[in-house]
UniProtKB/TrEMBL annotation, chains A, B:
Domain Acyl-CoA oxidase/dehydrogenase middle: 148-261
Domain called Acyl-CoA oxidase C-alpha1: residue spans: 297-455
Gene3D superfamilies: Acyl-CoA dehydrogenase/oxidase, N-terminal domain, Butyryl-CoA Dehydrogenase, subunit A, domain 2, Butyryl-CoA Dehydrogenase, subunit A, domain 3
Domain of life: Bacteria
Protein name: Acyl-CoA dehydrogenase
Domain Acyl-CoA oxidase C-terminal intervals: 517-654
Keyword Membrane annotated: no
Keyword Oxidoreductase set for record: yes
Family: Belongs to the acyl-CoA oxidase family.
Cofactor requirements of the protein: FAD
Keyword set, alphabetical order: FAD, Flavoprotein, Oxidoreductase
Domain Acyl-CoA dehydrogenase/oxidase N-terminal: 34-143
C-alpha cells in the first residue's frame, strides 16, 4: 500500500516545484538510456524520410524503408534480442527499449523492423533449434536475409488454431508439402511478403500419415533469384500485393498461396516437436493444446513491443498537442491578448489526463518489459511467471494501443486544422497506428485471453477448496472468503447499495490517498470477475447453450479484463513513483499518479455508485479533484512532454511548433476577437438573482 | 410526451416482425427521395474514382475530382440551393439532401462541392446583391467559374472576428485595397485555392478613412489567364499549396497572401452594409456585433450540410461492418461451425447502439434541414427561428461529426485487418472525415455557442422576471420556478441525492416508456444548465477574473450543450417514429429509439446516480435492457443498414462483403478452432460452488 507516496507532505504543497526535464527523462529512459539514445541518434539521421514519404510512390517508399532498416541494423539497434554468439546483443530488455523508441519516427520502419527481427527472426530463434540458428540468425540480424512471418490467413486471424494451410510429410522424399487448400486459407496481410522476403516462417497444420498434429512452423523459401539475379516467387508459390492500406505504405504486406511446395524435413522449426526420418512425430509436450499455446507463446514479445510502440507514438502526439497549446492563442477572455489554449479548463481536461495515462502506461510497460526479459532470459522459468507475463502482455497491448488511438485523435483535434496537414505528423501517426489494435492479436480477443486467465484462477480457488475439503474451509478462517463468494455476499452488496455512502472509509481516507485509489480499483476488479463467473455459471446451470451463455456474458467478461488491466497499470505507476528519490520529479509524478487514478475512478464512477462503493458526494469530490489536478499540472505540462525526449527533427510540425504562425504573436489584433462565452459569465452573474 | 409510441402494444411483442428494407428506405429518404436517387445514380456512374485514387498523383486526383464535380453539376445535383432565375433548383432542402447523399462516395468530391456551391456560391448568394447574383451565379452553378471561400487565417480560425487581413477603401480610385499584414494573417486551408479557383470571397477588416467597420466579404479575382491561357495568380496575390493532408487529397487546399490587391468598390458583397462612392459606410444593422453575426450566420447552411454528410458517412461504415459481421465467422462456441461475429454479445454491443444513434441523428438532421429550408426560403422570418436554427445546426454539426469519427473507428476495428486495406473504404472514410470535427466550426467552439444561447436564455428568464417585478413572481404561481432556481432547490437536490431511489417515478414508469426516457434527458439538461449558470455567477461574485471563471466552468458549460443536443436529437427521433404509420417498420424503429435513448442514459448514468435521479437498481435495469435490445435488434441489423441504400458500387470492399473469403464458408476447418473462452463457461460452472 503506497501510503508513503500518498501522504508525503510534498503532495499537499505542489506549488513552486520545478521538475527538471533532464532528470525526468532519465527516470523515463531508465536502465536502457543508452539504447534509447542510440535509437534517437538513428532517428535524427534518417528523419528526412518523414518528409519524403508523402511524395514517394509505394515501391520507392518501401525500398527506402528497407534501406533505413538495414542501416539501423548495422548500428546494432535491431539485434539486441538475439544471442551474442550469432551476432546479437543478448539483451531482450534492450531490444524492447530500442523498438519502443523507434516508434518516435516513421512507423513503417518500426513495423518492418518488427516483422524482420521480432516476428520472423523471433520465430526462428524461439521455435527453431541450433541448426536453424546457425543457418539463419546471423543473416537475419544483419538484414541480408529478409523474411516473413506467415501465420494469419484470410479466413482465420485471431483463431490461429484453425488455420487451414497444410504441411503434409512425404516419407518417400523426406519432405513436407505445403498447400493452400482454398482461397480463404491464403496467408494474408503478411509483412515483407509483397516485395522483399526471401523466406517465410509458415504456420500450417502438420499432417503425418493421415494424422493431424496441429499447427507447426516451417521455414519456407518463397522467393528465388532468376537468371538476372532478380528475386521472383519460388516455384509453387504465388504472391499478391495487399495494395494500398490506410497507413504503413512503406511495409510490403502481401498474400501467399502454396501449391504443393516442397521443403526438406529439416525446415520444421523443431524446438517443441520433431519428425524423424521414419515419419515419427515426437514432442515433449504431450497435450496438443498445450503444445499449440507453447508455440504461439513466442508471440508474447511482439505484443510487449507493439504495446510499447503504441505508448511511445502517443508521446509524439502529446508533445505536439501540448507544445501547440502553449503557443497558440485563441479568443480574449479579458485584457488585450488572446488566451493560450492550455489555459482553458476544457483544453486541460482534454489533454492532461491523457498525459497522466501515458506516464502510467510507460511505467506499466517498463514492468512488463522487465518481466519479458526475466522470462525469456531464463531468470524466471516457472510456468506461473510465463502465464502471468502472457496475460500482462496481452492486457497492456490492448490498453496501450487503444490509448494511442484515442490520444492521437484527441491531440489532432486539439491542434485544429494545422493538425490535419501531413506536415504535422498526425496524419501518419493516425493512419499508421490504426492497425495496432488489430495486429499482434485483436484487442478484444486479447482481453478475452486475460479474462480467461482471471476466471480460471477464480474457479481454481474453488477447485483447490474442494480438494482440501469444504469442511476445513468452512470450519476454518477461510469462512469469510466463502461468505464473500456466496449469496450472503450478494446480499451484503445489495445492502451496501442502499446506503448513500456505501464506502465506510470515505470519511477516513482522502481521494488523494493512494491506498484509497488502489482499494477502489482492486475492489472493482474482484467484484466484476466474481460477477462474470456467477453469470457464466447460472447460464450454464439454467441449461442455456454455452455459446449463447458466452455471448450474453461476453461484455461483462471484457469488463473484468479491463478492470484487471487498469488495476495492474495503476499499481505499476505507484511502484514507479515510490521507487523515486524525494524531489520535484517525484512530486510532479505523484500529481500525475493522482490524476491518472482519479481519472479512472471518475470514468467508471457509475459502477462505483451502482455498487455502493462510492457516495454521490465522493463522486463529485473526485471530479473536482481531477479539475484541480489539471490546473496544478498545467504549469508543468511542457516539462512533462519534454521529458519524453522526442527529437525535434522528427516532430516535423512547423505550423504547430513555430516559427511561422501563432495568433497574437505579431501584436494583438486590431479588432478585438470575440470570446465565445466572453461576456456570458458576467452577464449571467448580473442577471441571475443572488440566491440562484 | 410520446406515450403512444412508448406504450403501444407492438413494442412489447417485437418478435416475428419483418420490416421491409424498401419501405424503411422510403422512410429515411423522405420527401427528397428523388433527389437522393439522382445523387445515387451519379455516385454509381463515377464510382470508378474510388478505385483510382490510391494510385493517382495529387494533381491528377484533384483534376479528376474537379471533372466529376463539373459532371454532376451538369445534372443539376449541386444547384438545388440557388434561385431558379439564375439556373438553380430553388429548393434549399433538396440541396441539403443532395449533399448528404453525396457523402456515400468519394469525400473529396463532397468537399469540393461544398466549397464551390455551398461556401463560395452560398456567400455570393447570401451576402451579395442582385449585381453580384447576375454577374456570378449562373457560372458558379454550372461549375465554369470556380471559387474559394477565404475566411480562415493561419492565426485565426475559430475567432473570425479577429481576422487580420485588411480591406482599405481608397477614395481616390474608388477601390478596396486588400492586404495581408503579416504571415499569421495569410488565408489558410482554403479549398479550391491551390489549383482551381479564379476568384475568392475574401473576409477582411473593412477600413474606411481610418475607421474600422469590422469583418466584411469581398469578391477578389485571385487568378488570371496568362498569354498561353493558363491560370496564374493575379498580380499581388501569392498562393501556396497546403500540400499533403491526412485525407481529402482531391481537394486543393491552399494559402493566400494579398499584397495591396485592388478591387472595384462594387466587389464588396453589400447585402448588409454598403460603401458609397463618397466613402460613406452604411448598414441597416447598427450594432457591429450583430452585423458580424448576421454576416457569418450565412455559415449555417454549411454546418447543416457537414453534419448531414458526417451522418451519411457513418452509414457507409455501418453498412460495411454489419454486413461483414453477418458473414464472417470466428471461433466455435459449440458445434461444428464457427460463430458469426454478429452473434457475439460484445459485437452487438459495439455496433448496434451506434446504428441506433445513426438513425436518431438521421431524424434530427431531417428536422434541422427542414428548419434551414423554412428560414432560408423565407417561410419563417422571425429572429427566434433563426437563432434556434443556428444553435441546432451548431449542435448537430458537432454531435454528428464526432459520431462519424467514433463510428468509423469502431466499424473499422470490427472488420479487423480487412478493414485496414484501402480496398475497404475505411481508410478513406477515416482520413477524409477526420477534419469534419474541425472545419465549418471547431466542435468545441460550436458547443460553446450552443451553451451561450442556453445560458443567455436562462439569464433572460431572470431579467424578464426583474422587469415584471419579483413581488409579482414570488406572490404568484411562478413561486415554484423561483424556488427551483434558488438555494432551496439545491437543498432539495442534496436531499434527493441521499435517497437510494431518488426518482420517485421509477416504480411507475418502465425504462421502455418514451416519456421516462425524455424526462430523464430533459431533467439532466435543465440541471446542468442551471448548475453551469450558478458556477459562473458564484465565480464572478467571488471576484475571480472572468477569464479564469470561464476556464474553470468551461467543461461544465460544454456538458450543458451536450445534454441539450442529446435531448433535442432524442426528441427528433421520437417525433419521427411517432409520425410513422403502424407496421413493422415503425416497430423496428421503435426498438432503435429505445436502444438509442437507453444507451444515452446508460452512458451518463453516473450523472443520474449522483444527482439522485436514478437508483442503482434502475441503472442496472437500463444496462440489461440495452443488452436485451441488442439481441432483439440483431436479426434486423442487415435490413436496417440496407435501408440506407448505399449503392453496392461505392461500398467497394471485396474482402469484407465477398465473394472471396470468409472463414468456414468452404467447409469447417479440419482442426477445430479454439474459442477464446470456449470451455471457460462450462469450467466455471463446474468449479464454482452452487451458491456462489
Amino acid at each position: 500500500m503506497a501510503t508513503d507516496v500518498a501522504r508525503s507532505p510534498e503532495r499537499s504543497a505542489p506549488h513552486d516545484i520545478a521538475p527538471d526535464p533532464v532528470a525526468l527523462q532519465a527516470i523515463l529512459d531508465g536502465r536502457y538510456a543508452e539504447v534509447r539514445d542510440l535509437v534517437r541518434r538513428n532517428l535524427v539521421e534518417h528523419a528526412g524520410l518523414l518528409d519524403e514519404v508523402d511524395d514517394l510512390d509505394r515501391d520507392t517508399y518501401r525500398d527506402r524503408v528497407l534501406e533505413v532498416v538495414q542501416k539501423v541494423a548495422a548500428t546494432g539497434q535491431t539485434g539486441f534480442g538475439f544471442p551474442t554468439e550469432h551476432g546479437g546483443g543478448g539483451d531482450i530488455g534492450a531490444s524492447v527499449a530500442a523498438f519502443e523508441t523507434l516508434a518516435y519516427g516513421d512507423l513503417s520502419v518500426l513495423v518492418k523492423v518488427g516483422v524482420q527481427f521480432g516476428l520472423f527472426g523471433g520465430a526462428v530463434l524461439q521455435l527453431g533449434t541450433r541448426r536453424h540458428h546457425e543457418a539463419y540468425l546471423r543473416r537475419i540480424i544483419d538484414g541480408s536475409l529478409l523474411g516473413s512471418f506467415a501465420m494469419t490467413e484470410s479466413g482465420h486471424g485471431s483463431n490461429v488454431q484453425a488455420l487451414e494451410t497444410t504441411a503434409t510429410f512425404d516419407l518417400a522424399t523426406d519432405e513436407f508439402v505445403l498447400r493452400t487448400p482454398h482461397d480463404a486459407a491464403r496467408k494474408d496481410y503478411i509483412g515483407n511478403a509483397a516485395r522483399h522476403a526471401e523466406v517465410a516462417v509458415v504456420f500450417a497444420q502438420l499432417h503425418i500419415a493421415g494424422d493431424s498434429q496441429g499447427v507447426h512452423a516451417f521455414v519456407v523459401p518463397i522467393r528465388v533469384r532468376d537468371e538476372d539475379d532478380r528475386l521472383v516467387p519460388a516455384p509453387g508459390v504465388r504472391i499478391e500485393d495487399c495494395g494500398h492500406k490506410m497507413g504503413l505504405q512503406g511495409v510490403d504486406n502481401g498474400r501467399i498461396w502454396f501449391d504443393d511446395v516442397r521443403i526438406p524435413r529439416e525446415n520444421l522449426l523443431d524446438r517443441f516437436a520433431t519428425v524423424s526420418e521414419a515419419g515419427v512425430y515426437d514432442s515433449e509436450i504431450e497435450s496438443p493444446g498445450r503444445r499449440f499455446f507453447t508455440t504461439i507463446g513466442t508471440l508474447v514479445q511482439g505484443r510487449v513491443s507493439v504495446g510499447g510502440a503504441a505508448i511511445n507514438a502517443s508521446k509524439v502526439a502529446m508533445t505536439l498537442a501540448v507544445r501547440y497549446a502553449e503557443r497558440r492563442r485563441q479568443f480574449e477572455a479579458s485584457g488585450e491578448q488572446e488566451e493560450l489554449l492550455l489555459d482553458y479548463g476544457l483544453h486541460q481536461r482534454r489533454l492532461l489526463p491523457l498525459l497522466a495515462a501515458t506516464y502510467a502506461l510507460h511505467a506499466a510497460q517498463e514492468e512488463v518489459a522487465g518481466d519479458l526479459h526475466a522470462v525469456f532470459s531464463g531468470e524466471r522459468t516457472d510456468d506461473r511467471s510465463r502465464r502471468a507475463l502472457e496475460s500482462a502482455a496481452a492486457g497492456l497491448k490492448a490498453y496501450g494501443t487503444w490509448h494511442a488511438t484515442r490520444t492521437i485523435q484527441e491531440c489532432r483535434e486539439a491542434c485544429g486544422g494545422a493538425g490535419y496537414l501531413s506536415a504535422s505528423r498526425f496524419a501518419a501517426l493516425k493512419a499508421d497506428t490504426d492497425v495496432f489494435t488489430t495486429f499482434e492479436g485483436d484487442n478484444h480477443v486479447l482481453l478475452q485471453l486475460v479474462a480467461k486467465g482471471l476466471l480460471t484462477d477464480y474457479a481454481s480457488d474453488f477447485q483447490d477448496a474442494d480438494q482440501l475439503g469444504m469442511v476445513r474451509l468452512v470450519g476454518g478462517l477461510a469462512l469469510d472468503e466463502v461468505v464473500k463468494r456466496t449469496r450472503a455476499h450478494q446480499l451484503l452488496e445489495r445492502v451496501r447499495g442502499l446506503l448513500p455512502s456505501g464506502d465506510e472509509d470515505e470519511d477516513e481516507t482522502g481521494v488523494l490517498d493512494t491506498s484509497y485509489q488502489l482499494a477502489m480499483l482492486r475492489y472493482r476488479e474482484e467484484q466484476v470477475i466474481a460477477s462474470a463467473a456467477r453469470r457464466l455459471k447460472s447460464g450454464v446451470d439454467d441449461g442455456i447453450e454455452p455459446g449463447e451463455v458466452f455471448s450474453r456474458v461476453q461484455a461483462h467478461v471484457i469488463a473484468a479484463a479491463r478492470a484487471h488491466v487498469e488495476r495492474t497499470v495503476l499499481e505499476a505507476f505507484v511502484a514507479k513513483v515510490e521507487s523515486l528519490p524525494e524531489g520535484d520529479e517525484r512530486r510532479v509524478m505523484g500529481m500525475l499518479l493522482d490524476l491518472h487514478a482519479l481519472s479512472l475512478i471518475e470514468a467508471d464512477r457509475a459502477w462505483f455508485l451502482e455498487h455502493g462503493r462510492m457516495s454521490s458526494a465522493r463522486a463529485k469530490q473526485v471530479r473536482r479533484e481531477v479539475d484541480h489536478l489539471c490546473r496544478r499540472l498545467r504549469p508543468h505540462a511542457r516539462v512533462l512532454v519534454d521529458a519524453f525526449a522526442v527529437p525535434e527533427e522528427v516532430l516535423r510540425a512547423p505550423d504547430l511548433l513555430g516559427p511561422v504562425v501563432v495568433a497574437g504573436e505579431q501584436g494583438a489584433a486590431e479588432v478585438p476577437g470575440h470570446h465565445p462565452l466572453g461576456e456570458t459569465a458576467e452577464m449571467v452573474a448580473e442577471k441571475v438573482p443572488d440566491d440562484a
